[in-house]
Amino acid sequence: MAASLLENLAEYLGSPESAVRLILSILIGYPFALVYRQFLFHQSPSVIHLFHVFSGLSLAVFNFGSQVYHSALCIIIQFLLLRLMGRTVTGVLSSFIFQMTYLLIGYYYTATQEYDIKWTMPHCVLTLKLIGLSFDYYDGGKEPSQLSAEQKAAALPSTPSLLEVCGFSYFYGGFLVGPQFTLRNYLRLVSREMSDCPGQVPNSTVPALMRFCLGSSSLLIFMIFQPYYPDSYFLTDEYEAQPFWYRCVYILLWAKVNLYKYVTCWLITEGVCILAGLGYNGRGEDGQPKWDACANMRVWIYETTPLFTGTINSFNINTNAWVARHIFKRLKFLGNKMASQMATLFFLAIWHGLHSGYLLCFSLEFIIVNVEKQAQAIIKDSPKLTAVANSTLILPLHLRQVAEGLFVCVFLWSPLFHHCLPYPTIPSYGIGACESEERQKRGLERNRFLCLVL
């Protein structure tokens, strides 16, 4: 009965059933958070952990059925690694190798030519959680003087129990699509410390509703405009016959609209975390509570920044922070910041998946970020260039921001998506196989032109 209702709803919305299940699961986080606030907030930690485990498992089964065993297996093995190997470098390396290998094997055996919502989607989130757990456990055995401020905040002074690790892993506000958070913060939540009124239910209803409304607005934008920009249009002769400027504009609009589905998921889940209290981030200079500990998007900055680095800093924030803390900053032994950056971006590329478009996207990110920094340094060192850059005679500030933002979206964001459609000669996405040799040659020439532009 329920399955037929979901099928009918998916057909009515024109969306895959898996996507409908996902958005419903994210929304169910709000009732779960209300139950926690109303009935479980003052219960013992064990009761709260069990609630988080069973609620998260129910969402996993609802979406992926028996494939929930993948997450359960990795969680149990991670716990055993903590217990058996202790706070050692070997333990951290074993955790990293096992979790990443399991994820990549999952990518390999579940890969299709389409973008599917399957068990590997939440598992990539879980992989970072469990690897981060091993790093934080290792840091907990060091002297405080050896740790940075953020490492001190996340370090685990004691060995977590299996129930704590399971509750942390399956917490309904972060299991499916993130955000990333530390076990230390999760334990503070269970101990009733993540509140603007310690020991009491947090006054977070209004901030949570604000993120929910913003996420719902993003979903509405996606649902309205997505039918006008289907992926299949890129493979038609009509698209191929359009002038180059038209194809670029179409890519821009397609990429912008498709990004809203990610924005939607992150904003709505952030609201769930805020409602539960996990989003509490202390108080600001004005004494007001901050609820951005689980923020994955800074929407205003993301929509208005003219810089690519500004886009990075406002998009998928918690994942970027995780990678900076556990990968980039721990590669200081390389003695080369650029080498650390390259290694970090390579890790991000393979963590996202095995399709070549991910490598292309993060390679372009490396190039553009470094070129942008060098250009900014040149402009800053030249008073004349600074005056020209700040001059509204060339182009009003808001128009410059729009123009630069459009350039970034056209030439940088598009390869991030699952089809890498602007680059039709890449066979990983199944496009080269369905094109004639002549059409592939034309696509190659277009790729060369894009490289020259970049």
TrEMBL record:
GO BP terms in the entry: lipid modification; phosphatidylcholine biosynthetic process
Membrane topology, from the record: Multi-pass membrane protein
Pathway where this protein functions: Lipid metabolism; phospholipid metabolism; Phospholipid metabolism
Keyword Transmembrane part of the UniProt annotation: yes
EC number, UniProt record: 2.3.1.23, 2.3.1.n6
GO cellular component: endoplasmic reticulum membrane
Subcellular location(s) of the protein: Endoplasmic reticulum membrane
One GO molecular-function entry: 1-acylglycerophosphocholine O-acyltransferase activity
Keyword rRNA-binding tagged: no
Broad enzyme group: transferase
Superkingdom of the source species: Eukaryota
Segments crossing the lipid bilayer: 20-39, 68-85, 92-110
Stretch forming the signal peptide: none
One matching Pfam family: MBOAT
Sorted UniProt keywords: Acyltransferase, Endoplasmic reticulum, Lipid biosynthesis, Lipid metabolism, Membrane, Phospholipid biosynthesis, Phospholipid metabolism, Transferase, Transmembrane, Transmembrane helix
Family the entry assigns: Belongs to the membrane-bound acyltransferase family.
Annotated protein name in UniProt: Lysophospholipid acyltransferase 5
Organism: Tachysurus vachellii
